[in-house]
Every structure is written in C-alpha cells, then in structure tokens.
Amino acid sequence: MARKATTSRRLVMTFVAYTFALILFFPILWMVITSFKSEADAIALPPKFLFFHWTLANYIDVQARNNYWRFAFNSVALSFGSTVLGLIVGIPAAYAFAFAPTKNTKQILLWMLSTKMMPAVGVLVPIYLLLLQFHLLDTFTGLILILFLSNLPIMIWMLYTYFKEIPHEILEASRMDGASRWKEIVYVLSPMAVPGIASTVLLNIILSWNETFWSLNVTNIHAAPLTAFIASYSSPEGLFWAKLSAASTLAVAPIVLLGWFSQRQLVRGLTFGAVK
Amino acid sequence: MRLTKALYAGAFALALLSTASAQSLTIATVNNGDMIRMQKLTSDFTKANPGIKLNWVTLEENVLRQKVTTDIATKAGQYDIITIGTYEVPIWAKKGWLVPLDNLGADYDVNDLLPAIRSGLSYNNKLYAAPFYGESSMVMYRTDLMKKAGLTMPKSPTWAFIAKAAAKMNDPKNGVYGICLRGKAGWGENMAFLTTLANSYGARWFNMKWKPLFDGPEWKNAINYYVNLMKADGPPGASANGFNANLTLFNAGKCGMWIDATVAAGFVTDPKKSKVADKVGFALAPNAGLGKNANWLWSWALGIPAASKHVAAAEKFIAWATSKHYTELVASKEGWARVPPGTRTSLYKNPAYLKAAPFAQMTLDSIDSADPSMNGTVKKKPYIGVQFAAIPEFEGLGDTVGQYFSGALAGKMTVDAALKQAQDYTTRVMTKAGYIK
Amino acid sequence: MATKQTQSAARLLAAPSIGLLLIWMIVPLGLTIYDSTLNYTLQGNPVHKFIGWTNYYYFVTDPAFLTSIWNTLVLVGSVLVISIVGGTGMALLLDQPIFGQGAARVMAISPFFIMATVAALVWKNLFMQPVFGLFAWIAHLFGAPPIDWFTNDPMIAVIIIVAWQWLPFATLILLTALQSLDLEQKDAAQMDGAPPLSYFWYLVLPHLARPATVVILIETIFLLGIFAEIFVTTGGGPGQATTNLTFLVFRSALRDFDVGGAAAGGIIAVVLANIVSIFLTRLVGKNLEG
Known about the structure:
heterotrimer, A: 276 residues, mainly alpha, 13 helices, globular, C: mainly alpha, MetI-like fold, two-stranded antiparallel sheet
C-alpha cells in the first residue's frame, strides 16, 4: 500500500517538477525554435510552436555577416586560458589558506572577494590606457589577464572550501614519507580534490565565457569572443527576431552543452563550503 | 540566393585564414541594413585590390560610438576606417583626430556630393569623412488608410493636420495605430525627432550665451503636442520604440503615419520586407507655420583616424564604398531602389533611380531644405547641427534629456516636470563644462 | 598547530595570488582616485586641470544619484528574495524521487549558462515586446490588453530577467546542500511519522541556512554590478526608472566621456559596495564559522 502511495506521489511530484523546470527552460527553447523560423513566422500571431517551415536561412545569414567560428574559438581560448592561470595561482594559495590558516586567513579571503566590488566601467579608461601602453589591446594576453584576475577571488575561495574538508591526517602521512610540498600538492592533495577542482573550473569557464563588459570594450578583431559577436545584434534591424535568435543560439550553445554534460559535477560540487 | 550567401560565408572564412602578409584594414561600422549590404559586396573591392584584407567590427550604434570615441581620443589606432556621423566630424576634425580626405582619386567627383551633406562633413572647407548615405526626415503614410479617413495629405503638412489625420486613422482594435514616432531615449533616437519638432515650433537648445531654453514656451508646446498625440493615437510601448522598432511596426501595417528618416522609404517600399509596400505615400516633415519644417540632416560617413597606419589603403576603400561605381554595383545586384541614397546629385538625375524610387524627389527636397548652420533655426543659435549641437557634451546631454522626455511619454512624469529636469540638468552640465560662466 | 616552517612555506604559496590581487586592486584604484580629482573628459581639453572635489560634488548632486541607489537596492534585494525562495522551492522539487531527474535538473539550471546580453535580448524581443511578444499574445488570449513592460513596469521587467538568470544558481547550490542531508536523517524522519511540514521546518530549513548565505554573498557581488541587462533593454529608463549605480557610472564614462566624473562615481560605488559588504561579512562570517 505504501508503495502504491509513493508511486502516485512520485508521478505528481514529477509532473510538478517538470512544469516548473519547463517554465525556467522555456525561454531558451523558444529562442532555439524561433531561430529556425522565417522572419515572417517569427512574429506571426498566434505564434507558431512547431508547425512551420523549418529553415537554416538565419544561420547562413548570421554566418555571412560574421565568422562565428573565429569568435567561438576566441571564447574557448579566453575562458580556458584564464581558468588555467587561475588554477596555477589559485591552488597553492587555497592550499596555504586551508592547511596553514592564520588568524588573518578569513580576512584575506573576504578582502579578495571585495576586489570584485569595483564597477568595471568606472576604471575602463585607466585600464584601457594601461593596455594601450603595453600593447595589450585586442590581445588574448590582455583579456585573459583581466578575466583571470577578476575571477581569481572566487576560484581561491571555492578551492579553499574543498581543501579544508580534506582530512589533515592524510597529508601528515605523506609528509612522513618525506614528500616535498610540491609533490604533496600534485600527488596527494589534487587527486583528492579533483571533484572540487572540476567544479571550480566549470564555474570559472562559465563566468569567463559570459563576461560582457571587458570582453566587449578591450577587443576588436583578434581577441573578440562571442559576447562581442552578439553585440552587433543588440539593436533591432527591422524584422530580425529569427536572425537574433539564431545568433543568440550560436553564442550560448557551446557553454550550455558544456553545462549539460557536466551538470552532475556541478550539482555535486558547488558547495562553497556550505555543506558539512 | 542561399547558395551565394553560403559562398560568401566560405569566402569570408578563407579570407580570414589566408593572406597574413597583406595589408589589413580594420573597419568599425554600424549594424544597419546598408552597411551590412556593403560588407557582403566587398569581394568587388578585394578582387581589384588583392593586397588589402578587410576586418569588420560590426556593432550596434551606441556601442560603436563608445568604442570609436575611446579609440580615437586615446589615439589607440585600432581602426583604420570608422563609421561616424555629421555630429562627430566637426568636433573631431577640429581636434586633428581625422585625416582630411584629399586623395580620393581623380574619378571620385567630390563636387557631385549633395551640398548640404558635404558641408556637414567638412571642417574649414575640407572634407573629413565621405558620406556613405545621407538622410533627412519626412512623413511616410498609408495611402489606403488616408483615403479611408477621407483626407488628402498636402505636400507640406502642418502639425495640426497630422494630429487630425492620426485621430481619424487610429484603429487599435484592428491593430492599426494613427501615428508611430520615436520614443526610445537617446540623442540619436527620440531627441533627433523631438529637437526637429521643437525647432519647427521656434525652439533652440541654447541661446547665444549657451543658456539652455527648456523653460521657454516653444519647448513646452512641442513636447505637449508630442505626448498628447502619442497618448491618443500612438502604439503601445511607444516610449521604447526607436527607428528600427517603428520600421518593424510600419512594415507590419500597424502605423497610419510615421515621421522618420528618409532612408526608411527604401525599406517600407520593399515588398520583400514590407506588407504595405504598395500603399505608402510621402510628404515633407510637418511645420507649425513658422517657416521651418521639422526635418533633420544626418549622414553616416566613413573617416580615417589620424592614428591609422594604413591611410593610403583606407582612402582606397573609402573611395570605393562611397563612389558612383558602388551605387551601380548595388543597383546591378539588388536593384536601384536599394542603393544608398542621399549622397550624390547624379543619383537624383538618374532616370532609372527616379523610376525605381518614388520617394527620391521628396528625399532630395528634404535634404536640400535642411540647414545645420547657426542660422538654421527661427532664432539664431550658437551651435552647428539641426537635431543636435556639435559639442562634445551633447551626446550625454541628449541621452539624459531624452530619458526625461521618454519618461514623460511613458507617463512616469508630467511634461512640465520633464522640462524642468531637462533645464536643470542641462544647466548643470554646461556649467561644469565651463560654457556658462 | 602548524609549525613555523609550514607557516613560511604557506606564505610563499599564497604570495603570488595576494600580490597579484593587490596590484589588481591598487593600480586601478590609485589611477581612479587620481583621475577623480581632474577635469578630464575624453573629447575636452588635453590638459587635465586639478579640480579637487568638483567631480564628487557633481556626481552626488546628480538628480539621478539617489534614485540610482534606491534602484540598486530594489534590484539586488528583489532578485535575492526571488532566487532564494524560488531556488529553495525548485531545489526541494528536484530533490524528490521523480522520474527523469537528470533532465528536469538540466532544464532548471540552464538559464545560469546564458550570457547576460542574450538573456536580455531574448526576453526583450521574444517575450516582452508589446505587439509581437509571446506575453502580448498570452494577454490577448485572456482578453487583457498587453502589458507594456518596458514602459509601465520597467523595473519589474529587469528584475524578471535578472532573477531568471540567477534563480538557477541558487537552485544549484541549495540542491547540492539538500542532497548532502543524509538519507538516514530523511528516513528517520519518515519513520517517526514526522509531518512533512515540521520535517521541513526543523530539519531542512536550518540545513539550508548556510548555503543560502553563500548564495546571498556571491549573488550580491554580481548583482551590484548588473549592467548589460539594463543597457540592452531599457537604457536606464524610462526617466530614471531603471538606472542603477553602475549604469549611472557608465553614463559618465561612455556617454559623457567624462573620465573624471566616472572615476568619482566609481569611487563612490566602491565605498557603498564596501558598506554593503561589511553587513554581508557579518552575516556570512557567522554562518561560515570553522
């Protein structure tokens, strides 16, 4: 009897959960559907949900205007570059904070987070001039540095919370074996922290991929990522809903797919030390 | 058609991968229809100039202006060709930030440029940007609905007539609104229209001592007229509608009248884009009986920043993109109605164009009658420009004042409150900038 | 606890990140403070005169200044409430034993991956556009006049868009926390026949307090800087209805091209953000002991 009750309850809960999940997902779904419509169908009333003439014309138009692959490649390079840099600098720091905390550790971590509070637009001109002086405008190096530094506090904090949960005894044991500190990090600590590091990497890639202000303002051609690609569609051009949807779909597709494939990892890993 | 597009896409991809040794020009441009068409047609240029490679930065107008201004003011030299308007040219030329365009080639025929447009892009009688297209503003209306309303549009209507016609054509139940006008805040959006409206009512932004004049009756009458008209006979969401949104509405058959850029005429009469292509009539921008029509003057033009390292190649490209040859190229590929209008006298003498573009004469008359000089308003003003004042502060001013008027249109504040805030804000800015001592 | 040698080694390991972040903080901050005292506009006089507090005076007395602070608080506060409440609800649903949990989860967290510009463009054009938008059609179905979002309820429209992006983030973190509530506890509660409500009230909610503070901390940092959504949809208007502090600074920097004024605005924004962060630190500090 109890079993039956659970099954029907389960069905009801499934229905409710799917309803809300669908509501959240619908804007994305609608964007993708619209991207396959003709412009006339895109603004047809009543709206056409599935039964219309599906076409790739918008994608061809969008590609003819801007080479999507170049922007996509730049997005990948920038988010991976900044993430790798972040790991190289962030893991040792998080390790130090987790395993040799002082009374200032918490203050330092919070100070790091507070560096994210400066509104980027207030410092645009000084930073722009600095980049100009060092010939870093519209270069990978310039933008990777900015993305790396602005996400570093979050990375360190995340990594710190994972490292803190690793029992000290394991490290003690390895130290007894005479492992150097570097080896300790690479061979003992990192493997144990892999789930945490993976989540950190994912979050950092998502944040870098979607960064809008710097990526638009300090790049032009060579380092312009997908956020710049979409910027040429941000004002309407007559009938343009379908084209806009196609460009939007292209801009978000890689990161959404990455998110989907790694959702298990994200759901397990995004704790920020909040779970005991 | 689709195949050619795919081919272009392929060609672009190849062009990007190859020829690292070639000179490459970086071109910053705005995402409007004519510019995007130019991008698609550049194989004609690159074939003739195999040593030059083109990189496009296509951006929405506001973002474009942010990036181009930052670049040129810091002399970063990231762009070789920039798309700018009649607003920037006098300011930047004076600062020495632009290369004077003296070397556009023997066959360029600079004297063929329309005088109003040419003077708007010149400083000390030297051309600093070549017009890609030029525009004024005029009335576009639905001939069928006008007939149904039992009215006839005069060649040069008054604002009173426009209000009467809008009331008669308004039929929101059937999704038709009497009139569509710009409402989206921005110096190049609602303020372009509102400043010309106010000009026709005898208003100016500043008196000869740079004192703002929003506290006078001229502005008050103009803005009251606008808000009342739009509340009675405008579409919903008008305060968010810019040029493109109104174009969409008009093309979908939702507007009885629309007062906007003359270039729109080419789009609303294009049967591929417009549901009402065969039912559009044109008239001069309205007046209030004071001898000034409410039409502006604008040109999107191509210029070369002084910091560019490829001036010779950039000149070549500009000469190509703004030449008679380019006009003919567009005509041969897409028809005469699609060529960029408003730049050359010869175009308006071309029978093929006059036949394909029923709006040609009205466009020319509108452009010819626009006067950006200091004597262009009912009373003399201290600045150049019809729908703007060519001073660096104007962009920010126009945007903020545009927000107030957009707010008044949305019903967020009264017209009087909007005018008072506009007056106070403009006074502040002009004081900080040192115009008002 | 840790030996002296460990301590110095730790310092060495933390040094690069601390050093880099110090530079990343001090260089822009220093330049900004310096610029904020100058009469420095991009298209103005190339000689930048020292003008003391003038830029600060003009920024603070801007008619939009107080409105923008209020708007910032409304925006951040509303999105926090929506994402915490909605995120908790969504997380609880997804934690139930339902069919096809993975697919539901994927759909619910997807908006978090969408870049701000795209989110704003899609909502603005495909949904909230008052003539062709989907919402207008839905209103029409019920015989109601379409809501003209960006004219009549611009702030609500912006809040909807931003909350849509951040609710999934809250869901993600809260769901993670829920799944760590171990099964034994859940079973025990069920065995005791504890009514679902008290189970929720006494066991689940306290467990979610800590992750909720984390959500608040991280979201606040990002929400204080919300810009793209406003830029794309309302441009801060109509009037000043959606101008937040970041947008006001943007206006000085990239509309007036007033570098000095924007610098002063940036410094004021930093000061205000740090006041907020002091409160946050207290809140989080308490909840993240140990």
